[in-house]
Amino acid sequence: MSEAIFFDSHMHTPLCKHAEGHPVLYMEHGVAEGLAGIIMTCHSPMPNGFSARVRMAPEQFNEYISLVTEAADQAPDGFEVLLGLESDFFPGMEGWLRELHDRSPFHYILGSVHWHIAEYMDAFWRGDPFAFQKQYFEHLADSAECGLFDCLAHPDLVKNASPVDWDYERIRPHIEVALDRIAATGVAMEINTSGLNKSFPEMNPGSDMLSLMAERQIPVVIGSDSHTPIRVGEGFIEALEAMEDAGYATVSLFRERKRRDLSISAVKASLLGEPFPQAFGRD
Questions:
Q1: CA 267 to CA 194: how far, in whole Å?
Q2: Is the pLDDT of residue 54 over 50?
Q3: What's the order of all strands across the beta sheet hosting 108-112?
Q4: Could you write out the three-class secondary structure of the chain?
Q5: For helices 23-32 and 61-74, what crossing angle results, to 10°?
Q6: pLDDT value at residue 268
Q7: Residue 90 to residue 235: CA distance in whole angstroms
Q8: What is the mean predicted confidence (pLDDT) over 40-58?
Q9: Which of 2, 45, 99, 152 has the fewest CB atoms within 10 Å around its CB?
Q10: Are strands 37-40 and 258-263 parallel, antiparallel or unpaired?
Q11: pLDDT in tens, 203-217
Q12: Domains parsed from the chain with CATH numbers
């Protein structure tokens, strides 16, 4: 058979103040890319003006749901637009996020440690790049253990803080400790194709960290992190091939906060318009 089976599970709306395009346009590009659906995951609102320049305001939450619903209503038969959210992990904000996630029937919640927002830098940057990297990976593991998220977004994003100070072999022991903690939770991790466009131009995570994730059998979801409609589905074949090289045979997506695993070979074939056998594993 040959049909669309995969989703792009990370994209934004203009409500975050640094993306463009109505969700309808993201939906239309997803259809053109041979996807079965998309999950909108705009940046979560946060309280008391926290990081307000790069996210929707709390009073815009219902507007966000309406935008996603509008795209779902306009989608062609067989194509789905699902409601998700990208929520910031920041120590002390867990209660706020727990209540926020209960406000709507989300399909997917991404957890992100955004090292570059002003509040994070003010709290944790002390002028030592390596110490900052270590703190980031500790928080990444903390975010898995807090139980709020289905998946962890762009998990080595901190390498973009100062690419000249990124020494993978030096930070590797700390990454391994974080991954051991994450693996114990069952939380998935993302391979984010937008990393190819960042100051350290490789996917998040890079191939070395992805191999460590595979060794620990951590499930992986693919997201484009699109902030413009034309990037929906970008780099997915490359991401799937990177997963295969790392030792993965399946790739994951979420519906109703439950993980589904699909054969990588079937997903690749579907995106290329080729026939493929049974795609789904665990459901």
A1: 19
A2: yes
A3: 7-8, 37-40, 80-88, 108-112, 151-152, 188-192, 220-223, 250-255, 258-263
A4: CCCCCCEECCECCHHHCCCCCCHHHHHHHHHHCCCCEEEECCECCCCCCCCHHHCCCHHHHHHHHHHHHHHHHHCCCCCEEEEEEEEECCCCCHHHHHHHHCCCCCCEEEEECCCCCHHHHHHHCCCCHHHHHHHHHHHHHHHHHCCCCCEECCCCHHHHCCHHHCCHHHHHHHHHHHHHHHHHHCCEEEEEHHHHHCCCCCCECCHHHHHHHHHCCCCEEEECCECCHHHCCCCHHHHHHHHHHHCCCEEEEEECCEEEEEEHHHHHHHHCCCCCCCCECCC
A5: 40
A6: 96
A7: 29
A8: 97
A9: 99
A10: unpaired
A11: 999 999 999 999 999
A12: 7-271 (3.20.20.140)
Asked if 271 and 236 touch (Cβ cutoff 8 Å), the reply is yes
pLDDT tens by residue, 100-126: 999 999 999 999 999 999 999 999 999
The Cα 162–Cα 136 span in angstroms is: 13
- pLDDT on residue 1: 43
Say which amino acid occupies 282: R
Question: How high is the pLDDT of residue 278?
Answer: 62
Q: Exposed e or buried b for every residue in 191-201, given b needs 16+ CB within 10 A?
A: bbbbbeebebe
Q: 250-255 and 258-263: which strand pairing? A: antiparallel
Cβ–Cβ < 8 Å for 225, 187: no
Q: Kindly tell me if the per-residue pLDDT of 280 is higher than 70.
A: no
- Whether the per-residue pLDDT at 97 is higher than 70: the answer is yes
